[in-house]
Write a structure and sequence with these properties.
Order of helices and strands: HHHHHHHHHHHHHH
Largest sheet: none
CATH superfamily of one domain: Tetratricopeptide repeat domain
Mean pLDDT: 90
Structural class: mainly alpha
Number of strands: 0
Shape: elongated
Radius of gyration: 22 Å
Helix content: over 70%
CATH class of one domain: Mainly Alpha
CATH architecture of one domain: Alpha Horseshoe
CATH topology of one domain: Serine Threonine Protein Phosphatase 5, Tetratricopeptide repeat
């Protein structure tokens, strides 16, 4: 169940990346008097905007126009990769990701999104390699998320120490980023370092609304500490807020075993 939650977390990063590249302006491209570079930039931006709005037809129209202007445009190929990924044309999407990076090896946003794509495909070694390369860009605005994703991918490769380091790097860059705190809390719980697990879980709770994972972890930590009131309150919250979650199912099974 932990793997499902980790995958969901990384998929959310794709949404963040799309929002970051796609604004909400949908004004028409004005070619009159505009330079070729300006027209190319405008078509790419509009394509990304339309992807963000869910208008795939208009996105394709503008991205194809961008490729007509410059068939070697890394930005246009990146946009097409995102569009084709949404349409589950994965082979074509990968071709465009590779072209984007071939034409601009320093295009970190494309590299990060390619890594997310590879993770979704279950190609964790390849995804790790791309996340690791993306994490080297000290000026990339989504670098904390890249380190978070790097840690999630490391777990899939059974590289727990690498995951720990990546999540701590993420927090060093953005101390109020909630997600790594929960991952580290679970990691330390699995190591039976309950003090650190509690410390990271408490930090997560100050930054995020409760999640099924955080409540279930809280139940187990309170049970270990002999805090029956904490177990009862968190268990009740888990049952009411996330009744259909795998975590609640595990909690209910745990309750039955405790009652025996």
């Amino acid at each position: 169940m932990r793997k499902v939650a980790l995958k969901t977390a990384v998929l959310n990063l794709l949404v963040i990346a799309l929002l970051a590249v796609a604004g909400c302006t949908t004004s028409k491209v004005k070619n009159s008097g505009a330079s070729i570079d300006k027209a190319l930039t405008d078509h790419i931006q509009l394509g990304l905007n339309y992807i963000g709005e869910g208008n795939r037809q208009m996105a394709r129209t503008h991205l194809l126009k961008a490729l007509e202007i410059d068939s070697r445009s890394a930005g246009a190929h990146h946009g097409m990769a995102l569009l084709l990924q949404l349409e589950q044309e994965n082979s074509l999407a990968e071709d465009h990701f590779k072209k984007a990076l071939a034409y601009d090896r320093d295009f970190t946003r494309a590299r990060n999104n390619y890594a997310v794509f590879l993770f979704q495909e279950g190609r964790f070694k390849d995804a790790y390699k791309q996340f690791l390369a993306a994490s080297d860009d000290v000026n990339y605005e989504l670098r904390p998320q890249v380190f978070y994703s790097l840690g999630v991918t490391a777990v899939r490769l059974d590289e727990v120490e690498a995951a720990e380091d990546a999540w701590k790097r993420s927090l060093a860059l953005r101390p109020r980023y909630a997600a790594p705190y929960l991952e580290l809390a679970e990691l330390y719980h699995n190591r039976e370092n309950f003090r650190l697990a509690r410390q990271y879980l408490d930090a997560f709770a100050t930054l995020s609304a409760p999640q099924a994972r955080s409540l279930w972890l809280g139940v187990r930590l309170d049970a270990q500490a002999g805090n029956r009131d904490g177990v009862a309150s968190k268990g009740l919250a888990l049952s009411k807020m996330f009744p259909d979650s795998p975590e609640n199912q595990r909690y209910q099974e745990w309750l039955k075993n405790e009652a025996r």
